[in-house]
Design goal:
four-stranded antiparallel β-sheet; alpha+beta
Length: about 800
């Protein structure tokens, strides 16, 4: 090999071996990060070159044995050179999971249990003692127009025939005739029928529910309006639409084309993200064959899998393309991109995964599975960004430097891309960063005031599980709810089941029912069944299922169960769908503080380890609380208070009880993404140049373009779910979108630079013992870049600031 002339650099060829060198002995303690200018130069010593000659050269400092950037550098270059093998492995995995999912026949369902609650004990007891009452229930509402009555000859005959037909539907164990003791409204225009099923809602097929619709044909032929409500009814099962995902992907592609100015660069992160999501969905489908997985789990996994997959790929591809524009060979550029941006991806994904897995502390299985499924999607997105993305960059080669005419013209796209590398201070992101740093105090005060104002409605939140009252007005369950409320009262939409276990006679059951009827807030109390020593009494509240007064009634009955037992010695339990919803809300509320402490505590440790200062996680957590509080307050105002009724075509209803915990898990994880990406660039610049305020200006300005694109992509994917007809999905999509938007643009790109500019170099302080005992993971790739900068086999221009004149490889 010919020795490179002094002052030139040769291509990187042997760095995997170089980067395996052991860590140097611990150096002196540092109380803060030092810039390169503050560090002593390495002593010169003779070194033998590969061709046998020797000359004096600076010995590069060996990176920490545990530094993240080293391993990511090696993994990315391995994937780059073995790109066909890596692509084949991922394709085999995807195809294999599709085959397994198809063969398993797994389907998600919405059955969930709430262990440790009284309503769950009622369900379990009924399955043993009164299995006929443990299955699903359907309320059939028969209504006639004004001027007629359900007791008229024509309507009555049609209703009676419909009830008889309903009793013959497979799986129906009881079809209550409203003309034999059933409820009929005082005006005689509405009658309520009831179907008791032997199976739980997820086990009742749609083909069976189609038979229910056919069974009521005689009533409809007689001019009777028929609507349905309950835990299962025709049309209750919502089929997820692929439209939100498609809309989100189209918007994401447009944003990426604008960001990169290249169709190839824009298509790569979307393609790799889709591979990850497809693998996740097929895995969830296969697992659904052997365990209960809610359909919401798939929706949340798709949301996060797409958004995180695209974002993680975006960060690495953007860094790789910058290297190419500086003249680096593709293999060096991809290794450096993975060693720098990839480190941020690893720690950002880690915080998201911790937050999602933290849902397990709530103790509700469907939330635990939802969190694990979503965490799996994020984990796959991370692994793909570190393996498949470098492999695809190997296939793309220099094509990433080919700019497209869409949407602003080829010349303009190339000018913007090269400006971000060669003259970044002219970019809009740098201008915003300069503005924030220069006006940091008013910006900080104004941003905090805005977020606190948006968060104010959250202080009046009302948690619950929305039912038929929040469904679209054209939905049959909503029609049934409104008709029942207008003619019988809201309580008939959410009756309670009171189980008396240990009664000795029907007389004792009647006494318990009479005692229940006298309780405040009870409209009616009717014995339903007695089997052995277990009886069931149906209690109708005076208020609706989502009314806080109904929750007060449930707690009152449980607190006075001894008096209600009327000396019978029976164990009285309060259950039913309404009580179950109340128990879920109560359990989620009580678990929220524990969940918050666990998730924030673990993330605090992870971020402290990543950035080697306690101020980064403290600032991140405070910023997260502000953004999630503002997003939650906006959700309360628009969905609970009804300010967004016309905008989103919704009916105001209580806030979904599990939304706060899911928002905390997901928004905290995603906010940590942007925190890591922004702060790592600031730290990288400070480590090189030693000027804290200037590092904030340069680092935030450099990160702003990519973070803006990433946030807009995630925002667009979440917003696309607002078009869903399901109010729950609308609320979740809006909350996530608002949280991401506020956190990225108000907190991470505005408040974070303002705070760091105020703190200056003191922000990076850490105790002496911390430097001694805690290893440096090198999240920003400082040690890796020092290796590359000091080694003769590296191309010029590796520094993030674009300094130096790029030279082509030899």
């Amino acid at each position: 090999m010919e020795v490179a002339p002094s002052g030139t650099r040769t291509p990187l060829r042997c760095f995997p071996a170089l980067l395996c060198s052991p860590a140097p002995p611990p150096g002196p303690d540092r109380t803060s990060l030092r810039s390169n200018a503050e560090r002593k130069p390495n002593h010169a010593e003779p070194r033998t070159l590969p061709d046998g000659s020797s000359r004096t050269a600076h010995t590069p400092p060996a990176p920490d044995a545990a530094c993240v950037s080293t391993y990511l550098f090696r993994v990315a270059r391995w994937a780059f050179f073995r790109r066909r093998l890596v692509l084949a492995i991922w394709l085999v995995l995807v195809v294999g999971m599709i085959v397994v999912a198809g063969a398993s026949g797994g389907k998600t369902n919405d059955e969930f249990t709430i262990p440790g609650t009284e309503s769950q004990r009622v369900t379990d007891l009924l399955k043993v003692k009164l299995p006929a009452l443990s299955g699903a229930q359907t309320t059939v509402v028969f209504a006639v127009p004004g001027g007629t009555h359900v007791t008229d000859a024509g309507p009555k005959a049609g209703i009676e025939q419909a009830v008889a037909n309903l009793g013959k539907v497979p799986g129906v164990v009881q079809s209550a005739d409203p003309f034999q003791g059933g409820p009929i409204s005082q005006n005689g225009q509405v009658a309520l029928g009831n179907l008791q099923w032997s199976a739980q809602p997820p086990d009742i097929k749609d083909s069976t529910l189609d038979l229910v619709k056919k069974a009521v044909a005689p009533a409809q032929a007689a001019g009777v309006q028929v609507e349905y409500n309950g835990s299962v009814y025709p049309g209750w099962r919502v089929v997820p639409s692929e439209l939100p995902e498609l809309v989100g992907l189209i918007i994401a592609f447009i944003i990426l084309v604008i960001t990169f100015g290249s169709l190839v660069a824009a298509g790569l992160p979307i393609m790799t993200a889709v591979i990850g999501v497809l693998t996740t969905v097929m895995t969830v489908t296969a697992l659904a064959a052997v365990m209960t997985i809610a359909s919401t789990s798939t929706t949340v996994a798709i949301m996060l899998g797409l958004s995180c997959g695209i974002d993680y790929g975006l960060f690495i591809i953007a860094r790789h393309r910058d290297g190419l524009l500086r003249g680096m060979p593709p293999d060096q550029a991809v290794g450096l991109a993975a060693g720098t941006a990839g480190g941020s991806v690893v720690f950002a994904a880690g915080t998201v995964i911790i937050a999602l897995c933290g849902l397990a502390v709530v103790g509700i299985p469907f939330l635990t599975i939802m969190g694990v499924a979503a965490a799996g999607a994020v984990l796959l997105a991370m692994v793909i960004s570190l393996t498949l993305v470098p492999a695809m960059l190997g296939f793309a080669g220099d094509k990433l430097k080919n700019f497209s005419r869409f949407p602003f013209g080829k010349a303009h796209s190339e000018q913007i891309a090269r400006q971000s590398v060669e003259n970044p201070e002219r970019a809009h992101g740098w201008r915003w960063a300069r503005f924030v740093v220069h006006h940091r105090i008013p910006v900080l005060l104004g941003g905090i005031a805005l977020l606190l104002l948006l968060a104010a409605p959250a202080t009046r939140v009302q948690l619950g599980l929305p039912g038929a009252s929040s469904n679209p007005k054209g939905d049959t369950s909503r029609k049934a709810y409104d008709i029942t409320t207008a003619n019988f009262g809201p309580g008939f939409n959410g009756a309670l089941l009171v189980v008396a276990d240990g009664v000795q006679s029907q007389q004792q059951v009647d006494q318990i029912a009479a005692g229940l009827a006298k309780q405040p807030g009870v409209a009616a109390s009717t014995p339903l069944a007695l089997n052995g020593n277990t009886a069931v009494v149906r209690v109708v509240p005076t208020t609706g299922p989502s009314d806080p007064a109904t929750a007060d009634l449930v707690h009152h009955l449980r607190d006075n169960r001894t008096a209600i037992a009327a000396g019978s010695g029976a164990n009285v339990l309060i259950g039913g769908v309404t009580a179950s919803n109340i128990d879920v809300s109560s359990k989620l509320s009580s678990a929220l503080p524990v969940f918050l402490i666990v998730v924030v505590g673990l993330a605090f440790i992870l971020l402290t380890f990543a950035f080697r200062t306690i101020w980064v996680p403290i600032k991140s957590i405070i910023g997260f609380l502000l953004s999630v509080g503002a997003a939650f307050g906006a959700q309360v105002a628009l969905f609970q208070w009804g300010w967004g009724e016309k905008i989103f075509n919704i009916t105001k209803s209580e806030t979904i009880s599990f939304l706060p915990i899911i928002m905390i898990a997901i928004i905290f994880g995603l906010s940590s993404d942007y925190e890591v990406f922004v702060v790592s660039r600031i730290k990288e610049d400070f480590t090189k140049n030693g000027n804290a305020v200037e590092a904030v200006r340069r680092g935030a300005g450099t990160a702003s373009r990519v973070v803006t694109a990433a946030a807009l992509i995630m925002f667009s994917i979440f917003v696309a779910f607002i078009v869903s007809p399901t109010p729950t999905i609308k609320a979740i999509g809006f909350s996530f979108a608002a949280g991401v938007f506020l956190d990225a643009f108000v907190v991470r790109l505005t408040l974070v630079p303002a705070v760091m500019a105020l703190a200056k170099s003191g922000f990076w302080y850490h105790p002496q013992w911390f430097a001694r005992y805690v290893p440096d993971p090198d999240i920003e790739g400082e040690q890796l870049q020092e290796q590359l900068a000091h080694h003769d086999g590296v191309a010029a221009g590796i520094d993030g600031d674009g300094a130096g004149s790029p030279r082509p490889s030899a």
